[in-house]
Design goal:
alpha/beta; Rossmann fold; 10-stranded mixed sheet; 10 strands; globular; P-loop_NTPase; Protein ImuA
Length: 196
């Protein structure tokens, strides 16, 4: 994507920091967040192979994606740390089953600071505690138009700002990504944010 237009009160994911994303729409939100540059995606061979270029093209130019299949979780963490520290990619997205431990996360934070890259951890089972800069829970939402993807976002930890809930409307073509985030109230009892 060459250009992104954003209308929102949605907090930006800071470069040089690591952010944790979970939920069924975590990959989509990760790709939207990483659309501005080269992104390295690492994870198990099955997870990395499940990223289809045509599906990713709605959020990011697939030519910007480098995939690294890692048979072991330790390999994925090492790959993420090395890539974050290198300064040669704009974003590193590590697809992990669970949140890394505090020591592992601290190493990733320091690597992201050194390389000034955006670090994204996609987790299926977030831990109760995390050293991540922000923690997000993302779910797909029903869209009324075929040219739009809606994501329901809940920011439930933010070390440097406010928390909240949004519906993110993503519209894209090969040259432009339009993002519009609308603040919403926290749904009662739906559990879409309840990964605290």
């Amino acid at each position: 994507m060459n250009e992104a237009r954003t209308e929102s009160q949605l907090p930006e994911l800071a470069n040089g920091r690591v952010h944790e994303i979970s939920g069924a729409a975590a990959l989509a939100f990760g790709l939207v967040s990483a659309h501005r540059g080269t992104v390295l995606i690492c994870g198990s061979p099955a997870q990395v192979a499940s990223i289809h270029p045509e599906g990713a093209a709605h959020f990011i130019d697939p030519r910007q994606i480098i995939t690294v299949p890692c048979p072991l979780r330790a390999d994925a963490l090492w790959t993420a740390e090395t890539a974050l520290r290198s300064g040669s990619v704009d974003c590193v997205m590590a697809i992990l089953g669970r949140t890394p431990g505090l020591t592992e996360l601290r190493r990733l934070q320091l690597a992201a600071q050194d390389g000034k890259a955006l670090g994204l951890l996609l987790t299926e089972q977030p831990a109760a505690n995390s050293a991540a800069e922000t923690r997000w829970y993302c779910q797909p939402a029903l869209s009324k138009t075929p040219d739009s993807t809606l994501l329901r976002l809940s920011l439930y930890k933010n070390k440097r700002g406010t928390m909240g809930h949004w519906i993110l409307d993503v519209k894209g073509d090969k040259d432009t990504l339009d993002l519009h985030a609308t603040p919403v109230r926290e749904p009662d009892g739906t559990g879409w944010h309840a990964r605290r």
